[in-house]
DNA sequence: GCCGTTTTCGGCCCGACTGTTTTCAGTCG
């Protein structure tokens, strides 16, 4: 079984091996290709089948050939050969913090060291003492790194929903303690990647020292790793690393561009600037000595002849060309969301639970709300909201708000105990490994609107394909957002490319600081979704549930059936 | 190894910080 993630990992290891061997530019070329492959929205096999491997950024003749080998055999002969040339322990060494390929290579060549254990022994035996470039501090730093590595590496990337409350708390703490003009969390957090490796916080202030002091004193901060004139790096309780940078107001835009990234986006911006005789760095855009932009992101992009690029798109997937030609998609925004078709309340909720929900929805300017009134748990057990609660949902008559009733079931026929429950549409929750479409939607005559797709293996196109097929057949929207039962942005991209629409949870009924809505919006935007691509950005009259008639709001006139895009009809 | 409205060879993003240095190499993001 081959996968994009595995292919990328092999290429990355090839890069490391070449690094240790002292190669100059090849390693970066392999890493570039690895990053591209990781951010593909489909399987390598599919790209190869179309003979389009070389259209992947950073993949040329040589790497394309190696990828073919990988797809055929599961490995790459060149990689196997390199592994025999370099002791495997060296890769571990160069991945230790503070060590790199140069140092690992020196240990190997000058001291015959082949891995962490031998390095530990060498330090204990004093063999590093007197080695050029290794003072006491350096040796101590290496000793620490070795100790941390032995204790396991806690610093893996973590899901963005874990980072959200942390980021909010840090920003609030900074604002409270220091006199700041701007604060922004940049990095992959701002691009709304599914996972973040660290947090990059950017502030403007006249008094960096004061900012660092305040920051260091925050309760979440466990340890200061590094502190310079403009930059401080800390470790939080729990091991998350945070970089805090203080810049001048006139530099804020360029710094924000620079630290929001991604790396490949930045590299492309810089080379674009070079072509125009300009230089871009975190301090601004310069023509010679003269600063031509820097205060805002808009200035920076426009000085390069580009329209402003939303952070979620800054991955070097063609967005810079699109910005140059004014062809960036118009991404879905918070204000586009006019409804929510997937709202849960507890299975034993009483009728008085409904009105506050409606009030909250109205506050968020929603026009309709789909409440799940009955469903199947993950274990197959069936639940139904108490009758008075269902009655209350049916009874709410509000000129500005329409309530809909959903049942949440598997892709097969509706289970018997739910057959008598009145509902408006189904939410399909995949309950078995392979969906059975033989009966599916037609069994009830009422199709589904929202597919509830588990994404544990979502990065693998092949694992997701059957569920996409279910959604296509049911003409269902698929839900994006954080958590294991929703699609991440890459899968959302796949969904969109197969003509499916997305559903974005709005967090209605959830606490105000619940990040689900923001993250889901971010994922949809990363998938380049516009309002048209989002089910719950459609007004009620345009909503067709289960491929049937549009839903009519109580006071609105009936509208015609929604026009289908060609080629998107479900199989007969 | 990749890549090109200055191309098929000759470049390859750029600056902060650290630790070792009397001017810089390595690492990191």
Walkthrough of the structure:
This protein has 572 residues and is of the alpha/beta class. The chain is built from 21 helices and 18 strands. The strands form 4 sheets. Strands 11, 12, 13, 14, 15, 16, 17 and 18 form an 8-stranded mixed beta sheet that branches. Strands 2-4-7-6-5 form a 5-stranded mixed beta sheet, with helices on both faces. A 3-stranded antiparallel beta sheet has the order 8-9-10. Helix 1 runs antiparallel to helix 2 and helix 6 crosses helix 7. The longest helix is centred in the N-terminal third of the chain and has 18 residues. The protein is globular, with a radius of gyration of 27 Å. The two termini are 33 Å apart. It binds one DNA strand of 29 nucleotides through helix 2, helix 4, helix 7, helix 9 and helix 14.
List keywords for this structure.
DNA-binding, 572 residues, 18 strands, eight-stranded mixed beta sheet, 38% helix, alpha/beta
Tell me the layout of helices and strands.
Layout: H1 4-20, H2 26-38, H3 44-49, H4 61-73, H5 77-85, H6 88-94, H7 101-111, H8 116-124, H9 136-150, E1 158-159, H10 160-177, E2 183-185, H11 187-190, E3 195-196, E4 198-204, H12 208-216, E5 221-227, E6 231-236, E7 241-247, H13 252-260, H14 263-275, E8 279-281, E9 284-287, E10 290-293, H15 297-303, H16 319-324, E11 339-343, H17 354-363, E12 368-376, E13 382-384, H18 387-395, E14 402-409, E15 425-428, E16 448-451, H19 461-474, E17 477-479, H20 489-497, E18 502-503, H21 516-526
Helix pairs in contact: 1-2, 1-5, 6-7, 13-15, 20-21
The protein binds one DNA strand of 29 nucleotides through α2, α4, α7, α9 and α14.
